[in-house]
Specification:
Layout: H1 3-12, E1 17-21, H2 27-33, H3 47-54, E2 57-64, E3 69-75, H4 78-89, E4 96-98, E5 101-104, E6 108-115, E7 118-123, E8 135-139, E9 146-147, H5 166-178, H6 184-188
Antiparallel strand pairs: 1-2, 2-3, 3-6, 4-5, 5-9, 6-7, 7-8
Helix pairs in contact: 1-3, 1-5, 2-4
Length: 203
Amino acid sequence: MSTISKCMEVLSGAEHLTVKKRAAIESSALVEAVTPHFGTIEWAPPASYREALASGLSAVTRHLVSVGMNQGFWLYDADNLGTVNEDLVHMPEGVSFDEGVDLSTNHLVGFAEAGGEAVWCFDVSAPGADGEYPVYYHHQDTPRAKVRATGAWNEPQDETPDFESFSQWLETMTVALTAEEPPEWLERLGEPGLTFVESRRTL
């Protein structure tokens, strides 16, 4: 059984979760939906992500009494994926934090809502040998940006991704959402500046 299938089985069997499904999404529609403000982005939805989309998975949420709201994740369809990447992920041309150092987020493709202005993103500039992309938690106020001229990370610590793949991301989210006591970070999804290297979990 694949990691994605295992996660789907666990999520579907958890009584305290709301699991939403929809018709399977063609990956080609997602590729075509990504149109950055400048330049072009070439990417191919990785196999683990395609498997989740083919299963019809749309969203998984859990009501957290501590914050009085539902937390979880929402996978974008093609229409929302295009809009969110344009509005929250991809910087317009000429953005800089330091004078003369233009930044870019064209290496990112957001695939799921994390809450508020936070988006789970693939780093499509760094595919593994298996075609899987690293995953980053990106917030508009603390963007995971690179220096446009060099391709170096604007913040050196961002070189280490939050998750090594979509599978690892989904597995961690599954463990967090089904835990008897949810991790503290689940309550904080949507805040700027969160990182998840130390939060990775396996079923």
